[in-house]
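Lab notebook: predicted structure, single chain.

Context: the supervisor wants predicted structures on file for every construct in the current expression panel, including those that have not yet been purified. This is the next one on the list. No modifications to the sequence; it matches the entry in the shared construct table.
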Amino acid sequence: MYWFLIPESKRRKCIFKESCSQIVYKTLIQKGVWKGIQALKFRMKHCKPGYHVINIDGEQLLISINNTVFKEKEINKRVFEDDHFYEK
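Prediction complete. Output recorded below exactly as produced.
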């Protein structure tokens, strides 16, 4: 319903390659309602301001506000293109 009710121009841009709505929908279809709710809770817990990007041995990592580490392959490219996200 989110995709139909909120115009794309008004949606928040996701830090993950697969947006929260995409991953929740996919999980719901593949694994059921309970797993879909768990996926949504996980994403909401980690997709908040306060994350930072670090580079370790040539690999870019995103550290969430809850200190969870996400590898570059899981993260939206725009996060790595914005210099202000990098830890100094």
